[in-house]
Amino acid sequence: MKKRILVVSSANMDFVQSVERVPDAGETVIESRSYSYVPGGKGANSALAFARLGADTVFCAKVGRDDNARKLRKLYESEGIDIRFLSEDRETPTGLASILVEENGANRIIVYPGANEKLCEHDVEDAFTCYPDGVFVQLEIPDSAVIAAARFARENKIPLFVDAGPAREDFPLEKLFGAEIISPNETECRILTGITPDSVDNCLKACIRLATITEAKHVVLKLGHRGSFVYDGKYYNIVPSHKVPVEDTTAAGDVFTAALSYAYIQKGDILESARFATLAAAICVSRKGASTSIPTLREVKAFAKTIRGPKA
Ligand code: ATP
Ligand code: RIB
Questions:
Q1: 8 A C-beta contact, residue 59 and residue 25
Q2: Which of 268, 6, 16, 266 is nearest to 138 (CA)?
C-alpha cells in the first residue's frame, strides 16, 4: 500500500525572471527575455514531488482568497494531492516569491509569505486526522506550526522529516527533537550551526552539532553541485551529484528532501535514499521553474537507467 505523507508547509506563486546578470544596488537592468508565473513554495514543491514519486500526499498549508490560490488549488487537485487541509485566509494574499534566475541556473529568491504566515497549530492538529505514515515539514511557515507538527508526530510515533529551509539563527531547533531526518542546504547549515560545510571535516562537525541539538537519527547536508553529505549518527558518506546541463536550480532542495524522505520511509536505507534523491534533484536542475521541474517516478527510473545502463 502507498505510504501517506502529510506535508505541513508553504504554498506560493513564483514570479520568475531569467536574467543575464542581477542588478547592482541602485542599478536598473533591462531584461527583454520573457517572465513567467509558476506555482512554487517550498511545501508545494515537496508535496508535488511526493505525489509524482507515488506517495499518497496530504498537503496542509494556507493560501489567500485570490486568483493565485485558485490556480494553485487546481494544480494540486490535478496531481491527486489531498487538499482537504489546504485552508484559506480571506484577508491575506497567497504567498508570492520573486525569483531571478541567472544564466548558470543559480537563483535569488525573495518571498512575500502572505497567507503562509497564518498557518496555525489548530490547522496542523486538524490535518493529523488523516493518519499519516510520515510527516514532512519545512521552515517557510510560522515556527509555532512547525513545532506543533513535530510535537504531534512525536506524540503519535509518526516519523518526522525536516527540510531545514529557509533557516533562521534563532529557530528553536531543539523543539524538533527525535526527527528521522533533518536536511539543510549549505546556507541553512551555516545559519543553524555556525559551520560552513566546505570540507569533509566541517560537514561532519556540522552534522554532529545538528544531530546533538535535534536528536535526529540522520542528518543529510545538501551541497549543491557537490552532492550531499549523509550522516547516520556514526558514519558518513558523500553522494556526488550527477553531471547534467543546469537550467535552473529552483526547487532542487525541495525535491531532494522529499525524494529522500519518501525513499527512506519505504525502505529505511538512508544511503540508497540519498542516491535516489540525487537522481530526482538532477532532473529538477535540468529544467526551468519550480513545479514545472519536478520529476515523476517513471522519469527518475528512466534517468537512473541512462546512468547505470539499461540492465540496472
Ligand atoms: P534550491 O536551489 O532549491 O534552493 P538547495 O540550495 O536547497 O536548492 P542544493 O544543495 O542546491 O539545495 O540542491 C539539492 C540537491 O540537488 C543537491 O544535493 C544535488 O544532489 C542536486 N543539485 C544541486 N545543484 C546541482 C547541480 N548543479 N548539478 C547536479 N545536481 C545538483
Ligand atoms: O525552494 C524554492 C521555492 O522557494 C520557490 O518555489 C519559492 O516559492 C520559495 O518558496
A1: no
A2: 6
Which cell numbers in the block locate residue 184?
Answer: 539543510
Distance of alpha carbon 197 from alpha carbon 192, whole angstroms: 11
Instruction: Specify which residues 39 forms β-bridges with.
Output: 13
Residue 248 lies in a domain: yes
pLDDT of residue 310: 54
Rounded Cα gap, residues 272 and 263, in angstroms: 8
pLDDT of residue 32: 83
* Partner residues linked to 88 by β-bridges: 63
Q: Whose CA is nearest to atom 28 of ligand 1?
A: 225
The answer to whether position 305 is within a domain reads: no
pLDDT mean over 109-124: 97
- Cα separation, 270 vs 261, whole angstroms: 9
* Residues noted as catalytic: 254
Closest Cα to atom 8 of ligand 2: 41
- The predicted pLDDT at position 309 comes to 64
Question: Domain holding 241: CATH number?
Answer: 3.40.1190.20
CA distance linking residue 196 with residue 74, whole number of Å = 40
The count of domains in the chain is 1
Q: What is the mean pLDDT of residues 16-37?
A: 89
Ligand 2 centroid distance, CA of 173 (Å): 21
| H/E stretch holding 75 | helix 67-78
